[in-house]
Design goal:
Layout lengths: L1 H28 L8 H34 L5 H29 L4 H35 L2 H16 L8
Helix pairs in contact: 1-2, 1-4, 1-5, 2-3, 2-5, 3-4
Length: 170
């Protein structure tokens, strides 16, 4: 199962990157009076945008073939739907944080506290999601997918890495 190990190695590396980005975001809102400093708000906006871009543009496309292969197993539907729900919640929290940053930029000081709380909640949700992917998703995929499935998953990840995946699959 070399293809499975290769696929999971890449996904785990990206999960570590997502954890690191999220932790950096939290450290940024822990800076005293971050909301009063243009440079801190700009840094925070850049970090949130970077996390969002990495997740949407680099990480998620690598999981499409894995999720498609698992969707062929009817017993996986509920679990995959739960993961999708958790990912949607993470997306929603980031969008809320960006809206709150906009409000802070307009002088709404109470929005800064709500923004920090939203980013803390996003961090908790993201860590939970990544833990589910690293443990339960990995275990279930290793139980259900064939070597041929894994070969297709690894090929898809490779195509994303090389930038050759058709836009419709990203």
């Amino acid at each position: 199962m070399l293809a499975a190990e290769s696929a999971w190695r890449i996904l785990r590396i990206e999960h570590a990157r997502l954890r690191e980005l999220s932790a950096t975001i939290l450290r940024t809102v822990e800076v005293e009076h971050w909301f009063n400093r243009d440079s801190q708000r700009a840094l925070l906006r850049s970090l949130v945008s970077g996390l969002q871009s990495f997740n949407d543009g680099a990480h998620r496309p690598k999981g499409v073939a894995l999720m498609d292969a698992l969707r062929q197993h009817p017993d996986m539907a509920g679990f995959l739907d739960d993961l999708a729900h958790d990912q949607a919640r993470c997306d929603q929290l980031l969008a809320e944080a960006i809206d709150l940053l906009d409000a802070v930029d307009q002088g709404d000081r109470p929005a800064a506290q709500r923004c920090a709380a939203t980013l803390e909640e996003h961090h908790r949700q993201l860590l939970s999601l990544l833990e589910q992917e690293d443990t339960a998703l990995r275990w279930r995929s290793n139980q259900r997918l064939t070597p041929e499935d894994w070969s297709a998953v690894a090929s898809s990840i490779s195509a994303v890495l090389s930038g050759s995946l058709p836009a419709s699959r990203r």
